[in-house]
Amino acid sequence: MEELGYWIAFTRVNGVGPVRFRRLLDYFGSMREAWQAGAEALAQAGLEARTVEAVRAAQASVIPEREVERLERAGVKAITWQDTSYPERLRQIYSPPPVLYMRGVISSADDWAVAVVGTRRASVYGQEVARRLAGELAEHGVTVVSGLARGIDTHAHRAAIQAGGRTIAVLGSGLDVIYPPENARLAESVIECGALISEYPLGTKPEATNFPQRNRIISGLSLGTLVVEAGPTSGALITADFAAEEGREVFAVPGSILSRGSGGTNRLIQQGAKLVTSVQDILEELNLSSLPQQLEMKALLPENETEAALLGLLSSEPMHVDDLVRASNFTVSQVTAALTMMELKGLVRPAGSMSYVRAR
Fold first, then answer.
1. Rounded to an integer, what distance in angstroms lies between the CA atom of residue 360 and that of residue 137?
2. Burial of 321 by CB count in 10 Å (0-12 exposed, 13-18 middle, 19+ buried)?
3. Helix-helix angle 2-11:49-61, to 10 degrees
4. What is the dihedral of CA 96, 99, 103, 104, to 10 degrees?
5. Residue 299, pLDDT score
6. Which ranges of 221-345 would DSSP assign to H, the alpha helix?
7. Is 3.10.310.10 the CATH classification of the domain at 301-358?
8. Cis-peptide, bond into residue 180, ω within 30° of zero
9. Residue 293: its pLDDT value, please?
10. Edge-to-edge strand order for the sheet containing 194-198?
11. CATH of 2-65, one of 1.20.1410, 1.10.150, 3.30.429, 3.30.70
12. Distance CA 281, CA 275 (A)
């Protein structure tokens, strides 16, 4: 918690993004040491003179401990590269955000996510397609990721929620500055059905320059990106570009050649994006057609090293908890807690007093 405040403090420094964060962390070993460094040391770490000045100014005005308190009051959680809860797929992109601010929960179910994006000026056709495809993705257990923007994004989030699925909205502002403001109620619904996330600290306004960078997070969280409707200069195409650069799948819905709003999606298809006319086109390409069964099987697999080790020791012959403790080198509390969870999953079953066998 003490180190977290310094990570948050650095997100308030203009010019310190993922690359410079990495330089500082590699050089100083911790963000606390970096925050307490002088100008000379910051320069030696690889920061340019202008960035050094920005850091020094922030050191004089930003109090790391108060940044943590401010998040707690706002009901916002911050996770960093060093947290095990940091989304693994996002961690793999070229420039993952050092800090993710979050309201709601990102869960293991979000390992299967698809971005659904498009123009803010959605046509009736675009709105209907977004609702249908996002809703059907959610019905199949796929998390819908989008940007809470007007138009396609809004319809995608709403459809996922109405289908009883999960959805994640990535903002280009602080989590206390919902944009567009008319989506404030939708944002609360997203929190209940997934998460609202941002790389920007509280109070950050929705500046135009924030949104292209925001888009790399949308694609970075996702197995693939679906562009429903987009003109030749739509920001949704930036999301598709990020997805392609990271080796993720790009999908596009065809539209009328007479509609400017479909110019971008039609061009994506010409360039090799997968043409989508039904949700099955996406599910089959990403091998998600049997996702509900895959999720069920995942729940039956060992969740961590403790469960895996115990499962390896157990057989059809009963084994006492004490013997499991001695053989595994885990504590009694670790073994009993893991066995309780494994029993709920159907992996093991009791076989007499304090003894267990494998259930399958």
1. 32
2. middle
3. 130
4. 50
5. 56
6. 236-245, 263-270, 279-285, 291-300, 305-313, 321-328, 332-345
7. no
8. yes
9. 61
10. 77-80, 99-104, 194-198, 167-170, 143-146, 113-117, 224-227, 249-252, 274-275
11. 1.10.150
12. 8
Instruction: Compute the distance between CA of residue 86 and CA of residue 106 in angstroms, rounded to an integer.
Output: 9
pLDDT value of residue 298: 56
- Amino acid identity, residue 25? L
**Chunked in runs of 10, what are the mean pLDDT values of the chain (360 residues)?**
90 94 96 96 96 96 95 96 94 96 94 97 97 97 97 98 98 97 98 97 96 97 98 96 96 95 96 97 88 60 80 89 92 91 80 82
Block residue for tokens 């020094």:
56
The DSSP secondary-structure symbol of 253 reads: -
What is the H or E stretch that residue 276 is in?
none
pLDDT of res. 294: 59
The CATH number that domain 104-290 falls under is: 3.40.50.450
The rounded distance, in Å, linking the Cα atoms of 302 and 306 is 8
Write down the H helix ranges in the chain: 2-11, 18-28, 31-35, 39-44, 49-61, 64-74, 88-91, 124-139, 152-162, 184-192, 210-220, 236-245, 263-270, 279-285, 291-300, 305-313, 321-328, 332-345
Q: How many CB atoms lie within 10 A of CB 160?
A: 30
pLDDT in the model for residue 301: 60
Tokens of 117: 């994006």
Q: Cα 258 vs. chain centroid, distance in angstroms?
A: 36
The pLDDT value recorded for residue 40 is: 96
Domain ranges of the chain: 2-65, 104-290, 301-358
273: Cβ contacts below 8 Å, ≥ 6 apart: 227, 240, 250, 251, 252, 265
Q: Which residues make Cβ contacts (< 8 Å) with residue 317, sequence separation at least 6? A: 357
Per-residue pLDDT, 108: 87
pTM confidence score: 0.81
